[in-house]
Amino acid sequence: MEEDRRSAARGGALAEEMASWVGARIDAAHANPATGLVALAVYAGARRVLGAGIGPRVAGVGILPRLPRLRAGGAHPLLAAMRAHLVGRRVLAIEVRGDGVAVIAGDLSTVKNDQDDELPGEAGSAAAAAAPAPGLSLAAPAPGLGPGSPAPGLSLAAPAPGLSPGSPAPGLGPAPAAAARLELAPGRRGEVRLLDGAGNLILRWPPQGSAPPAEIAYPEDPLAAGAALVEASDDAAAGQEKAALARAVKARRAALERRAEAVRGDLGRLGSVARLQKTGQLLLAQGARVPRGAAKALLDDWETGGKIEVALDPARPAKAQAEAFFAKARRYQRGEAVMRARLAETERALEAIAALEADVAAAEARPEALEPLAQRARSLGVARAEIAGAGAAVAGEPGAAGGARAPRAGRTAPRRPFHAYRSASGVAILVGRGAEDNDALTTKHARPHDLWLHAKGVAGSHVVVPLPKGASCPADVLVDAATLAAHFSDARGEAVCEVSYVQRRYVRKPRGAAPGAVVFDREKVIAVRIEGARLSRLLATKEEG
Q1: What per-residue confidence (pLDDT) applies to 271?
Q2: Neighbour tally for 197: CB within 10 Å
Q3: What is the pLDDT of residues 275-308, one digit of tens each?
Q4: Which end is more exposed in the chain, N or C (fewer Cβ atoms within 10 Å of the end residue's Cβ)?
């Protein structure tokens, strides 16, 4: 019984702090679903903020000294619903109850008009003058009363015409149709409910529902409790943000290491240039002796006195295939400068990302310390969504919590069948990672109105430019995409390459065709000259899949 009295007194302390809020305008609604802090700000002579922690990271209720620094973006469904139904309206009434806090918001003129509609004529006008002020009990549960029962002496409602502010009101019946009701049930497994004036559920968060405690433990000092609540939420969110940033930087370092290894492998092939040239010369000199339709040939090696076995295309004369060996040798030689420049650029990026990784590990988990590091990470090719995906984001930051769902702890994001690059104007260009990945990119990810490209007449990656429906591809983006299509094909190293492009709707995958093999109609062709500066710029924007 004594504990019940203390609980009622603590609820009364919160109610007393919020007494002046009735009639005030709701200025803002914020939340950090990752930590569970929900905040509702009103202007009652000064800004006042009600905070409720519904878990999993923070729990409790109090008056916040400020808005949380780390919170979800406005696209989050909880934020969008609260802002649509609460922000800009007036507080009609507040309940401090055993099972949570409820705030009813609406337009005071709407309430008055609803009452007038119920009291027509002159008799109705006289009755309206004598009617009590509209409102809802602002009260904490008293001993012996169930949750939601008003405690004696704690009644307060919005003033109606003819009544002075603060005049007591016995309470409201059903809320007017234009009103909205926000119910906050704090606790580690608490929840938020938003209802319309008729009591219909608009939104419940978490969506699957939860099991809020039957009785709320209200603080004796709502102001101190609110200060602790907002600090705990920001600390927890910043810790998550630091961990997400560290994972994203580590993944970027691993991707750069793979890229450097691949480029070193390409440079290693330069040692085969002399062999390719020699094979071409021998085939040109001895090809006339090779039977037509042969799949391989044994050529005399004049330097060593031995034999060289060469794989051939049975459909073509052997002598005519000598040029293919010369062409491959030329591609390797022409691509050497680009490959060496890319390797140097990648090694510089690796040094920078390693330094960033050390700085992130040493940084304090505070927004002001993490944001400069996040900017450095973005400049080094870390995707914005990867940085903010698992933690809360600074207010207004795209990619905030509530956007794309991050993988759960211990799970890795699903592998994409493509790598994404960016044109100079920021348009995404998707490049298939292999034969089967090409099929997945073209048949599962690309939309019918997207642009599809492929190096003409040679094996290579499928390239897709996502476009808005009905839009055409800008010329600079087309050249960038064609450059990537040429680079990621057997035409790599050629000075000029022809690239086919069509809308994805005209590309078909024949039944039983080999991985990556497609046919297409309405082909257009662009002859793209490979510019080293353009190619280097594009490759530097790579976003790992």
Answers
A1: 67
A2: 18
A3: 888 888 888 888 888 888 888 888 888 888 888 8
A4: N
Cα distance between residue 166 and residue 23, in whole Å: 10
Whether 31 and 15 have beta carbons less than 8 Å apart is answered as no
CB 478 within 8 A of CB 421: no
Q: Look up residue 213 and give its amino acid.
A: P
Nearest to 22 by CA among 135, 100, 131, 132: 135
Q: What is the pLDDT of residues 392-422, one digit of tens each?
A: 333 333 333 333 344 444 445 567 889 899 8
Q: Which amino acid is at 388?
A: A
| Residue with the two structure tokens 């169930």 | 146
Check: CB of residue 202 under 8 Å from CB of residue 196. Answer: yes
Amino acid at 499: V
Q: Which of 405, 369, 390 is nearest to 240 (CA)?
A: 390
Q: What is the pLDDT of residues 475-521, one digit of tens each?
A: 999 999 999 999 999 888 788 899 999 999 999 998 888 888 899 99
**Residue, of 345 and 172, whose pLDDT is higher:** 345
The answer to whether the beta carbons of residues 221 and 13 sit under 8 Å apart is yes
| Global confidence as pTM | 0.48
Q: What separation in angstroms does the CA of 402 have from each of 31, 398, 405, 481, 514?
A: 10, 10, 7, 32, 40
C-alpha to C-alpha distance for 295 and 297, rounded to whole angstroms? 7
Sequence letter at residue 155:
S
- Residue 154 tokens read as 């704690």
CA distance 141 to 335: 78
What is the Cα–Cα distance from 189 to 234, expressed in whole angstroms? 19
Q: To which H or E segment does residue 339 belong?
A: helix 322-362
309 burial (CB, 10 Å; 0-12 / 13-18 / 19+) is exposed
Between 80 and 388, the more confident residue is 80
Both tokens assigned to 212? 């809020």
With contact defined as beta carbons under 8 Å apart, do 81 and 203 qualify? yes
- Percentage of residues in the chain having pLDDT higher than 90: 23
